[in-house]
Design brief:
The complex is a heterodimer of chains A (about 400) and B (about 425). Chain A is of the alpha/beta class and about 400 residues long. Chain A contains eleven helices and 16 strands. Chain A has a seven-stranded mixed β-sheet, with helices on both faces. In chain A, helix 2 (about 35-55) crosses helix 3 (about 55-65) and helix 8 packs across helix 9. Chain B has 15 helices and 14 strands. In chain B, a hairpin with a 2-residue loop joins strand 9 (about 310-315) and strand 10 (about 315-320). Chain B has helices at about 5-25, 30-45, 50-60, 65-75, 80-90, 120-130, 145-155, 155-160, 175-180, 190-200, 230-245, 265-285, 290-310, 345-350, 365-375, and strands at about 100-105, 105-110, 135, 165, 185-190, 205-210, 215-220, 255-260, 310-315, 315-320, 335-340, 360-365, 385, 410-415. Chain B is α/β, with parallel strands linked by helices. The chains are: A alpha/beta (about 400), B alpha/beta (about 425).
């Protein structure tokens, strides 16, 4: 059995050192210097730290090391430390510290079995630092740096404000975006989704204001909110000013209407009049502190040739499609199950095993969707659904 | 996999089958059962040309290991198939002289694709009843029904003329309409959603049987845990139930309840199951390829197992011992949960959330223990309780899914 774990104080010297190293790593990544070595060292040190203090990870590491000693050459270094499956966030607290110190708990949306994943934070400074650095690079590169013509722009959010959805990590991030990048004028930031309903008039007016003033606007929201908006806007079409952009995130879990990524981009381009490169996907998870974005917008804004669509992995993160049985990285270009290592997950677990299928290409990761559920799993899900409310699945 | 049918193809096939119905009805039950038995024997015989073809084609289409395909063909199709069919017909034959059975004119049978041999019973029952059978096979795997139809045509052309197989994509409404429009009997094997969708399209006069989502469970009572040898035997039988069809079927056990009171404790039984029995089967009856999406689910399931209890992993299998943890279903592919349990009454309480979805329950030890468990269970739990080691090989002579096996295929005329 595993050793008992000890909770970590906020001012624990080892924690503070790791926090400082992570902050420096993100900063170094922003400046464009190579950080691969420092990242891998930090991730290994973080795993060792969390293997002593994050209860579920203590057990996972103990079991993994019984099966495959870390000193063995069985696993290549990126996956030598095991990754904690995201399902564990639904069933156990994944944290190095006591819940009394929580300042925020982000939760996943509902699942078939009803249990929601939870990711607790006692300090959001690293989250903010990582989120802002990633957004600076991929979503608002024209608002940062010495040559930026403006520091803010009009924003329209197709997602709830954090006060309406305090446990949504997306709402938290978008509310920070409003503070960091939002046009400070009274009508500079519009929240057009309330109580799960797209406010078509507010959306339409905000986009019309941007168009009439010839000021670019960033339209940010969830995939299904964009589909709702498409239904709500009817025949209205927009030709948003140059520099306008659309960011959509998330899948269609539990929704009745779904769209493939190409169809979604076609819909966005046709509805809002933004070039294809200016419509990008964001990939974030409640269980992470950092986000991945497609790189086409940044390429276009920087005047570079637009690379094939892929999620760019921030240099401080590691994204590794792995073989589901050996847990070893799959060869470049082959499909595996995506493992993400995010050092900004300081107080939980930095090695996270997702259910998403992905493959690595030059320039990033291509996401192939969450495990869709073949026949046997389909059976399981339906039965779990029937069991909901009658048993703790 | 064959080319998908068009609505015109399906309609023409339905017409041809209805026309073949007269000759089929003119034959006796014995002739039809004999024909089906001989066709099954062809496929079961590794030296028969169709048997050779079946082995190669089914390995490719099902992605099972060759040894598993061999096991499946042998356990399902070898032996006295015609005798079992005659026994089943006799058992369900009305004893009253005032009742006359009238076979349906055309049965439409929609098959699932998870366990290829499951189609055999689904096709044999209408045919032995004298009902021409139009089969809509899974678009992923139509190999077995087509081979069976060919075997039947080879050994008994008159019976073989009364079965036809078509394939088309799910949701093809024109083809579905063609499939159903001439059928007065419809049987559907598949997801609950598929069953509901088909049922909604039928006229009230059409006889219908739906065979939906299901899983199996197993119970190892204290009597099977008395000593190491007895426990080893139970684990060995249970391992076969888990490994069969790589746990992809509706009879496959996903959860094993092990009695707390045995001399071999549940954790030790879990270790035996993994380190001895499933390890042995990994050599003799290896698991097939793991699809990537199921691999993703397996990673999550096993990881949660480690956090909740103790995971015993091996080559293509895992046993997650989680003591008093909650029920949770595995992604299949030889991943099984072990929970501790008390007497059969506690077992019944713990199984209750599975409801109608519990299709099979394997029970260790002797027939008295199975009878004790049967008394404790309330309907609709577990239509079949079997010894460990035989969960995946139900007798052709018994009912399935707790239903009258012939209900959708015949009506009764009362002679007052």
């Amino acid at each position: 059995m595993s050793r008992p774990h000890a909770l970590v104080a906020r001012d624990d010297p080892r924690r503070l050192t790791l926090q400082a190293r992570c902050t420096a790593l993100v900063e170094a990544a922003r400046s464009g210097v190579s950080v691969e070595g420092a990242r891998d060292t930090l991730l290994a040190d973080l795993c060792a730290f969390q293997a002593e203090h994050t209860a579920p990870y203590v057990r996972l590491v103990a079991a993994a090391h019984r099966a495959r000693p870390p000193s063995s050459a069985h696993l290549p270094s990126p996956t030598r430390w095991p990754a904690l499956p995201t399902d564990v966030f639904r069933m156990a607290r994944v944290s190095t510290y006591d819940a009394a110190e929580d300042v925020r708990v982000f939760r996943t949306s509902g699942t078939t079995s009803g249990a929601r994943g939870a990711h607790a934070f006692r300090d959001l400074a690293l989250y903010d630092h990582a989120a802002r650095t990633a957004a600076d690079a991929a979503l608002f590169p024209d608002l940062v740096g010495a040559n930026a013509r403006a520091r803010t722009m009009r924003l329209v959010m197709l997602a709830p404000h954090e006060r309406d959805a305090p446990d949504s990590s997306l709402s938290y991030m978008l509310t920070r975006f409003a503070e960091w990048y939002g046009d400070p004028r009274e009508d500079g930031v519009t929240w057009a989704l309330r109580d799960g309903v797209v406010e078509a008039d507010a959306l339409s007016m905000a986009l019309a204001r941007a168009t009439s003033s010839d000021e670019p606007v960033a339209l940010l929201g969830t995939s299904f909110a964009f589909v709702f908006a498409d239904d709500a806007l009817g025949a209205q079409r927009f030709s948003l000013p140059p520099g306008s952009r659309v960011m959509q995130t998330g899948g269609f879990k539990g929704r009745t209407r779904t769209l493939e990524p190409d169809a979604m981009r076609a819909l966005l381009s046709a509805r809002y009049g933004v070039p294809d490169a200016f419509a990008i996907a964001e990939y974030g998870m409640t269980e992470l502190s950092s986000q991945l974005y497609e790189g086409t917008l940044a390429d276009a804004l920087r005047g570079r040739s637009v690379a094939p669509r892929a999620l760019r992995v921030p240099a401080w993160m590691r994204a590794t499609p792995v073989d589901p049985e050996t847990l070893a990285p799959v060869p470049h270009g082959e499909v595996g199950v995506l493992r993400l290592d995010d050092p900004a997950n300081l107080d939980s677990v930095c090695a996270v095993q997702t259910s998403d299928l992905a493959r690595r290409i030059d320039g990033g990761i291509v996401l192939l969707g969450r495990a869709p559920g073949a026949v046997p799993r389909g059976c399981s899900l339906a039965i779990e659904e029937a069991m909901t409310g009658r048993a703790d699945v | 996999m064959s080319e998908p049918g068009t609505p015109g193809d399906v309609r023409a096939l339905a017409t041809r089958l209805r026309e073949a119905g007269a000759a089929l009805r003119a034959s006796s039950i014995e002739e039809r059962a004999d024909a089906i038995g001989r066709a099954a024997a062809c496929l079961a015989d590794p030296a028969d040309a169709l048997g050779i073809e079946a082995r190669a084609a089914l390995c490719a289409s099902s992605e099972h290991a060759p040894a598993m395909v061999e096991w499946a063909l042998t356990t399902t199709l070898a032996g006295d198939v015609s005798g079992a069919l005659r026994e089943l017909c006799d058992a369900w034959e009305p004893r009253s002289r005032t009742l006359v059975a009238q076979p349906a004119r055309l049965a439409a049978v929609v098959l699932a694709g998870n366990v290829f041999t499951a189609g055999f019973r689904a096709l044999a029952l209408p045919l032995v009843t004298g009902v021409p059978t139009l089969v809509k096979a899974s678009s992923r795997d139509d190999v077995f029904p087509r081979l069976f139809a060919r075997a039947l045509s080879t050994v008994a052309p008159r019976v073989g003329a009364a079965i036809g197989v078509t394939t088309f994509a799910g949701g093809d409404e024109a083809c579905e309409a063609a499939l159903l429009e001439h059928a007065d009997s419809v049987s559907v094997y598949g997801s609950d959603a598929t069953i509901a969708a088909v049922r909604a399209r039928l006229a009230p006069s059409v006889a219908f049987a739906g065979h939906g989502h299901g899983v199996g469970a197993a119970y190892v009572p204290y009597a099977a845990l008395d000593d190491l040898d007895t426990a080893r035997e139970a684990a060995s039988h249970l391992a076969l139930d888990i490994a069969a069809y790589d746990q992809r079927g509706c009879l496959s056990p996903h959860i094993v309840f092990v009695a707390r009171s045995g001399r071999i404790v549940p954790r030790e039984f879990s270790r035996l199951l993994a380190d001895e029995s499933l390890t042995q089967l990994a050599r003799t009856l290896p698991r097939g390829a793991l699809p990537m999406d199921l691999g993703a689910q397996q990673l999550q399931w096993r990881g949660l197992g480690v956090v909740r209890g103790e995971l015993f992993e091996g080559d293509g299998f895992a046993v997650s011992y989680e003591a008093d943890g909650p029920l949770r279903l595995s992604p299949g592919y030889r991943n099984v949960l072990v929970l501790e349990c008390g007497d059969p009454r506690e077992l019944a309480r713990r199984l209750a959330p599975l409801g109608v979805h519990l299709k099979a329950l394997g029970v260790g030890s002797d027939p008295a223990r199975r009878a004790e468990v049967a008394r404790a269970l309330e309907a609709p739990l577990a239509p079949r309780i079997s010894p460990l080691g035989s969960m995946q090989t139900p007798s052709l002579a018994g009912p399935a899914d707790a239903l009258d096996p012939f209900a959708p295929f015949r009506r009764f005329l009362t002679l007052d």
